[in-house]
Design a protein that fits this description.
With 155 residues, this protein is an alpha+beta fold. It is 21% helix and 34% strand.
């Protein structure tokens, strides 16, 4: 088996859940959350209502493991914003602009993701875009982000 054929090793569900909880709490400190949104939730997009949610794109996986037991993992996620822009292109653009500001905000505001976990990189990987239209004029806009972190960074 070559290094390219190495199976993907996922972090524990507990580790991923802990980080997701910390990420949701951190995202809710974003100062430009629209007033129509109560809070940014975890993987819950209510029908027929303005809302936002963090959603994991794929399971968090280990990208590098050290002999000391430390490892580097990648947590990929997106933030979805459900909005009803009507027929206004400006409202649709404002939804994307708000998510893009969130992407800019993460570059200077880092979350605390837990004990013995250190963020190495946190970045947006796309600009915001429309990805779904529903009946009743509702739309989902999304932005993708990626966080690389080290477990047991002192090792």
């Amino acid at each position: 088996m070559s290094l390219e054929d190495k199976p993907i090793e996922f972090v524990s569900a507990g580790e991923e859940d802990t980080i997701s909880r910390k990420m949701v709490a951190w995202l809710n400190r974003f100062p430009d959350i629209p007033v129509s949104v109560d809070l940014i939730d975890y993987e819950l997009i209510e029908p027929d209502t303005a809302c936002m949610a963090l959603s994991i794109v794929q399971s968090t996986y280990i990208v590098e493991r050290y002999i000391s037991g430390a490892y580097v993992a990648e947590y990929q996620f997106k933030v979805v914003y459900r909005v009803k822009p009507g027929k206004s292109p400006d409202s649709r653009l404002k939804a994307d602009e708000m998510l893009d500001r969130l992407g800019d905000w993460i570059s200077t505001n880092r979350p605390d993701i837990g004990e013995n976990l250190a963020i190495q990189e946190l970045e947006q990987t796309t600009r915001s875009s429309l990805f779904a239209r529903m009946e009743g004029g509702w739309e989902d806009h999304q932005i993708f982000m990626r966080m690389t972190y080290k477990v047991n960074p002192g090792k």
